[in-house]
Predict the structure.
Amino acid sequence: MARTTRTALLFALAASVAAFGCSKDDKSDADKETKQTTTESGAARAKPSANSGGKGPAIKVTETGAEPRKELRFKVNKGDSQKVEMTMLLSMKIDMEGMEMPETKLPPTKMVMKMDITDVMDNGDSKWEMSILSADVTDDPTVNPAVVSAARDGLKGITDFKGWAVIDNRGFVKDADITIPASADPQLKQMMESTRQSLDQLTAPLPEEPVGVGAKWVVDQTISQQGMTIQQTANYTVTSIEGDIVKADVELVQRADEQTVEMPGMPPGVKARLLQFDTKGSGRTTIDLTKVVPPEGEVEANMNMKTRIDMQGQSQMMSMSMGMKIIMSAVD
């Protein structure tokens, strides 16, 4: 249960940053290899390739919106600090070979993240460092106590992970890294390595041309998530612009072709074939041009996935559906 719960939480985390953020700019094929270095403390440090296994985002403005229009650019200062709380409400249902298990409601999960601006370059690029200050579940009398315990176990050690990124003034991530402690739980370590692309998606995507209220743009991208290659489309519609605060509605669609996947935590000799994957969601986000991460937002999404598990010459079909609601809010 702990492994399944942890996987569900990581899927939700990946979906939330996809809805609220953008992704790394594409670079040359020469940079595609993932490199492993070691920190002075001996912690394994997984460095993403230049495009983190995915294809750089394509941003297209379909409507520029009403006058007055303005050029949206991030403008942060060295020494700035920001805290945001992410609340995840999840439920999931699993079907194994036609044996449908009861829907499992997970307890509300809250994570508080801190971003510190450590450098601002002359060209407008900035470097920020991220840490997870706290991660825990909220006791819920409507949730099975065993599920609460499993969810809490699934979060153990996650506050030991640190990350950093260098972004330009439109929110494109030029480089990013995540530090994984050598003492981390092996399953959690493997899952965090597979989701390190989330660092590339924590900032909001900004179009090149000036836009006004009513503006619409589309962000298309191929990403790697939990061992799968996924095509993702995010549609943004600006609802208001007041100074440095931009509010927008977001619609998110993800799909994946049939493929062989290497899911984190899977035992040796077990192979998984993805047969179907799709996610649809919608919500809203608030972009503060003086902050690197949206300080406020909310998205609801539904994910459906079908896989075939092959082990010791036998195959088993598994279907999983997950409903999620993710809320982002600023913390003083």
The chain has a mean pLDDT of 81. Residues 79 and 283 are 31 Å apart (CA to CA).
